[in-house]
Amino acid sequence: MSEEPEVWQRGPLPGISPMLQPVGHALLQAREEVGGYMKEFPLSLLWERPAGLAAPGFHLQHLSGVLDRVFTYARGEKLNEFQFGQLDAEGKDIPAGLTVAALVERFNEQVDIAMEQLRSTPEEILAEYRGVGRAGLPSTVIGLLVHGAEHTMRHVGQLMVTVRVLQHGVVR
Fold it and tell me: What is the pLDDT of residues 116-159, one digit of tens each?
């Protein structure tokens, strides 16, 4: 088989704690899969919602946004106005129009930022408390980082299904 193994099967990621390897592997896998699904995806379908599903454009925005927000909480920081604006914009095109390439690139950049944060996160702080959202719901550094990876993969799966339905129609 000429296909490369999944990221987690390629070995450890340099500079990342063993405890955070699965998070890094999942994020890099997500980046590869999003790139593959969205390659040559037509702009005309970016905001289509087959059977009421979320549009591919929403998933691409949300993938970037959720990583940014959850990793912000993991650093022990609050969201800023720009992040709240990005959250409010999820699921909406802009007047000038968003392109598939721009949304994929934004996600790729957010994965790069997240990977750098993983490299700089010491194991000693993984169990530290972190408040989430305005209500300060309880979590930990590792809880937030794992959730960021899990939530990302969940939306990658939803994106994959929506893209396939839009490109090929529903198979009965």
Answer: 999 999 999 999 999 999 899 999 999 999 999 999 999 999 99
Contacts (Cβ under 8 Å, ≥6 apart) of 165: 50, 51, 53
**Both tokens assigned to 50:** 């087959």
Give the burial class of 54: count Cβ atoms within 10 A of its Cβ; 0-12 exposed, 13-18 middle, 19 or more buried.
middle
| Full 3-state SS string of 18-65 | HHHHHHHHHHHHHHHHHHHHHCCCCHHHCCCCHHHCCCHHHHHHHHHH
Q: Under 8 Å CB-to-CB from 92, ≥6 apart: which residues?
A: none
E strands, 98-146, are 129-132, 137-140
Q: Tell me: the pLDDT tens digits for 91-106?
A: 777 656 789 999 999 9
pTM of the predicted protein model: 0.91
Report helix, strand or coil for 137.
strand
Element (H, E) at 111: helix 100-119
Contact (Cβ atoms closer than 8 angstroms) between residue 118 and residue 23 = yes
C-alpha pair distances (Å), 66 with each of 73, 81, 84, 107, 152: 11, 15, 11, 10, 8
Write the CB contacts of 71 (distance below 8 Å, at least 6 apart in sequence): 113, 114, 117, 144, 145, 148
